[in-house]
Amino acid sequence: MKYRSAFDIIGPVMIGPSSSHTAGAARIGRVARNLFEKQPKRVVISLYGSFAKTYKGHGTDLALVAGLLDFDTFDERIRDSLAIAEKAGMEVVFRPEEAVPDHPNTVKLKLYDDDSEMEVVGISIGGGTIEIKEINSFQLKLSGDPAILVFHQDRFGVISFVTSVLSKYEINIGHMEVARKEKGETAIMIIEVDQRIDEDVLEELRKLSNVNRVIKIVD
Amino acid sequence: MFRNVAELVSLAEQKQVKIAEIMIQQEVEVTGLSREDIIAKMDNNLQVMEQAVERGLQGVKSQTGLTGGDAVLLQNYIKSGKALSGPLLLDAVSKAMATNEVNAAMGVICATPTAGSAGVVPGTLFAVKEQLNPTRQDMIEYLFTAAAFGFVIANNATVAGAAGGCQAEVGSAAGMAAASIVEMAGGTPKQAAEAMAISLKNMLGLVCDPVAGLVEVPCVKRNAMGASNALTAADMALAGITSRIPADEVIAAMYAIGQTMPSSLRETGEGGLAATPTGRRLEAEIFGQPKPKLKDYLV
């Protein structure tokens, strides 16, 4: 089921005018920033479908940038996010694209700073609910609920080491997905969990062999 | 977990509780949060809705100037005593518009189920409140009942205008509100489902054609009509009228209709009212770049 909670329907509390094009966009921007783990210096935002046609009217541009600045959907600073980003030294480029996407509300964000870059594709499926469909060309499905992302080498045993650590801390896995581009290369684990994840759990995961990067996504 | 309206109604009948209670119990199960936390969270959403209506009734204007002030005009008209369609109905219409005028002005609202359709559920709630005198708990339950039906619609169809047109947004909101009104007025779970079906049936085919792509014209007035539709459907169901087509099949029909809608009528600002000469003129005035006109009349 795409929607799991009553608050997916009655909510979010948000700055208007559109739950999919404003609040959903802010959430996608915020998850992207979360994944990047810092404020990017430059972001290239490609908009598709309805996003490309109506982003100015819906404040989709303001909301995406607000999310990249780590603002919530009801933050009144959304209205001034472009100016705030400029002051904060974040350069943003918008590209309305002609290509027809699978979902009408699709956005691709390319985040850069001096030594790293990341590409995130998200869709806004209605009522402020979002899905992340791609991270660095890995096809996946991430709802924006609390989760851990583990980038690792595609070797035997890595999944079991990771889940052992979670089990040690009595963390239950609600949903788990593994994706890779090529056999034996970099792979990614998406683990949605029921409990709070403390920093020491992440640190222990980071120390595991063949684990390259661990990111926590918070609600 | 209930998957459709039939299961939702039968759960409520088996346990002999309101639809709202089924939604609350499921929320406890799914999130692991306590009942108190969940009620408090919905109370917070209720407060946001109250504040949005209050703000809208004081009169707001959107940045473009396309919308704002109509909620106030209608309240003044109700006060004049000349209203033909009844003060409760018009109060709901006015409060629905108040919410969406605040939304268009980039104010704070609670999406129900979406921002573009955020007026219908609170608009009807704060109007029937005047007659039914509900407790705070009853008002919170009104929102959980709406959530239960919205949950079924969102999971079996869509609530996004870009995916299913306005029938998926204001149509869903009207169906949700109709069911909540019935339950608050003391109707049965079955009657709530009938009201949802009657209401949504009469929103089928409604396109999403916002002028200049903005959630203003015709969105504010579509919320007005959604509120009026919801109240009428609720009264019909409470009178014992049933829908010949069951609620779940109405939802399926809404989804199927949405999928066959051309993209120009699904929140792209390309067809329908957006493509009228006035719609195009307003767009040019706001964004200063008129779009090609040739295909406007072909959509």
Tally of DSSP β-strands of chain A: 11
Shape of chain B: globular
Annotated CATH architecture of the largest domain in chain A: 2-Layer Sandwich
Structural class of chain B: mainly alpha
CATH level 3 topology of chain B:
2-methylcitrate dehydratase PrpD
What is the tally of helical segments of chain B?
A: 13
In total, the number of strands of chain B is: 1
Beta-strand percentage range of chain B: under 5%
Helicity level of chain A: 25-40%
CATH topology of the largest domain in chain A: the name is 60s Ribosomal Protein L30, Chain: A
Q: Stretches of chain B where pLDDT falls below 50 for ≥5 residues?
A: 291-299
Count of DSSP-assigned helices of chain A? 7
Unreliable stretches of chain A (pLDDT < 50, length at least 5) are: none
* Arithmetic mean pLDDT of chain B: 95
Mean pLDDT of chain A: 92
Q: Which class do the helix and strand fractions of chain A yield?
A: alpha+beta
Q: H/E element string of chain A?
A: HEHEHHHEEEEEEHEEHE
CATH architecture of chain B: Orthogonal Bundle
CATH class assignment of chain B: Mainly Alpha
Could you state the oligomeric state of the chains shown? heterodimer
